[in-house]
Amino acid sequence: SLAASDVYKRQFKGLPLQVFLDWVGIPERAITVNFYAIDDYTVSLPLNSIDDYEYYIVHAADGRIFSDYLGERDRGPFAIVIDVDDLSIEESRMIDYQMIWWLNLITFEQ
């Protein structure tokens, strides 16, 4: 378990994304991972860029599990966040689009 903060200093709980992807199994020829949200927002990341930042798949924020209080602002049931604590404000804004809330599907592409 971990605690990673976003730009609003919320405390998240989950796993490093690479640990999660290794656990589910990355297809041998995959080069991209796609994340889909309930609201149709999509984020696609090259697998070789996952180590560029500290990505996490999270299920709770500020001590509350997302599924216990699902709502438009609550960001659950799962989310992909990036630990931006050690990044400049400018850099964190540049990668903000890579965070995805209401995550409900993950696929891989060749």
Care to describe what's here?
This protein is mainly beta and 110 residues long. The chain is 14% helix and 35% strand. The chain has 2 helices and 8 strands, in the order ββαβββββαβ. It has helices at 17-24, 89-95; strands at 4-5, 11-16, 32-37, 42-46, 55-61, 64-65, 79-82, 103-109. Strands 1, 2, 5, 6 and 7 form a 5-stranded antiparallel beta sheet that branches. A 3-stranded antiparallel beta sheet has the order 4-3-8, with no helix packed on it. β3 and β4 form a beta hairpin. It is globular, with a radius of gyration of 13 Å. The termini are far apart.
Q: What is the percentage of strand-forming residues?
A: 35-45%
Poorly predicted spans? 1-7
Largest sheet: 5 strands, antiparallel
Q: Distance N terminus to C terminus?
A: 31 Å
Give the SSE string: EEHEEEEEHE
Strand elements, count: 8
Mean pLDDT: 84
Structural class: mainly beta
Shape: globular
Tally of separate helices: 2
The radius of gyration computed from the alpha-carbon positions, rounded to a whole number of angstroms, is 13 Å
What is the helix fraction of residues, given as a range?
A: 10-25%
Write the layout of secondary structure elements.
Elements: E1 4-5, E2 11-16, H1 17-24, E3 32-37, E4 42-46, E5 55-61, E6 64-65, E7 79-82, H2 89-95, E8 103-109
